[in-house]
Specification:
Layout: E1 5-8, E2 14-18, E3 38-51, E4 55-66, H1 69-89, E5 97-109, E6 119-132, H2 138-146, E7 152-159, H3 162-190, E8 193-204, E9 210-211, E10 217-219, E11 231-233, E12 237-251
Antiparallel strand pairs: 1-3, 2-3, 3-12, 4-6, 4-7, 5-6, 8-12, 9-12, 10-11
């Protein structure tokens, strides 16, 4: 699968000059530093890395109703058992299925006639997250769940495995550092300085990986004999990160680190 790395324009940069007397006066990039002074250049860099998703998380709910809580629970348990058996047969084992929410509640319906007592029905629901290790099989997994007891498909998210995400994070950090280094050298040149080393590096988490199209495109077809399968697609997933780096600098002529 193809991967690209993009260095994204960073935020504003700041040039700080620390005087020998212990003060930290600030100069602009077009001013010449005092010979022999110790200087620092603080910049922010950002970077990103892309890859095709190698797993997906599908959230489905099994819902059942009954005239009392016990009946609703029993029907829910039967539908849940049927769905999980079908998923296991389709390759989605118990280690790939986790509970998100379980609920039994009263559902008071408006009576059909004015002044009549409200009709009370009990509803039970069990929401699961299914981890699918092959994104191309998401549509088939959705159809299997819906055809065997699932009442709702709440969400489909294409994402990355832990190993793939860590690899992209390393690439994104490298891109962010390259972005910061380029900015620091440009500022140093404008201020008649030479970058001589690194003083501080801080990283900022880029958040969870995000699909380029902000989610999956899903066309769901009712499950019936002879019906076409659900078609679910997603584009590349992007990991972004940023760094803040303080570089050491000296008047031009000193050796660059």
């Amino acid at each position: 699968m193809s991967r690209t790395i993009r260095a994204v324009a960073g935020v504003a940069v700041l040039l700080l000059i620390a005087g020998c007397a212990g003060s930290t006066p600030s100069i602009s990039a077009d001013q010449s530093p005092t010979p022999g002074s110790d200087s620092t250049i603080q910049v922010a860099g950002t970077g990103s890395a892309d890859a095709e998703p190698n797993q997906a998380v599908v959230r489905v709910s099994v819902v059942a109703a009954g005239s009392d809580a016990a009946t609703a629970r029993q029907r829910l348990a039967a539908n849940t058992s049927r769905m999980r058996t079908a998923l296991a047969d389709a390759g989605v084992g118990d280690d790939r299925v986790s509970t998100v929410r379980y609920d039994i509640y009263q559902d008071r319906r408006r009576p059909p006639e004015e002044g009549a007592e409200p009709r009370i029905e009990y509803r039970a629901s069990h929401t699961f997250e299914l981890t699918v290790t092959d994104p191309d099989r998401v549509g088939s997994v959705v159809d299997t769940a819906v055809g065997n007891g699932a009442s709702e498909v709440d969400d489909v998210t294409f994402t990355l495995s832990t190993e793939r995400r860590r690899a992209l994070e390393r690439q994104a950090r490298s891109a962010a550092m390259a972005d910061a280094r380029s900015k620091a050298r440009a500022l140093a040149t404008d201020a008649n300085l030479t970058v001589t080393g690194v003083d501080v590096i801080q990283t900022t988490a880029g958040g969870a990986p995000r699909s380029a199209d902000e989610g999956a495109s899903m066309t769901e077809t009712p499950v019936a004999t002879g019906a076409p399968p659900s078609d679910i697609e997603s584009g590349p997933v992007t990991v972004r990160t940023s760094v803040r780096v303080v570089y050491e600098a000296a008047p031009e002529g000193n050796e660059t680190a």
